[in-house]
Design a protein that fits this description.
- By secondary structure, this protein is mostly beta strands.
- It has a domain of 37 residues.
- Helices cover 0% and strands 36% of the residues.
- It has no helices and four strands.
- It has a four-stranded antiparallel beta sheet with strand order 1-2-3-4, with no helix packed on it.
- The chain is elongated, with a radius of gyration of 26 Å.
- The relative contact order is 0.19.
Amino acid sequence: MRTKGLTRACDRCGGPMERMRDLYGEYDDCLHCGYHLNKTEGPPVELKRVSMPRPRAKARAKAKIRL
């Protein structure tokens, strides 16, 4: 993790936020309360809703009664 320095005030507590960078990208961490804010580029991605077929109920085997 590399520190890029203090950036802005925290949304939660108003404390200083430190900009960090790792393998997955940039993010801000608050030094006072620990609030974590991911930095993403571009608009949020909308996921498509995929309807999956419902699994069929298994047929019960008819038990034979022996006397």
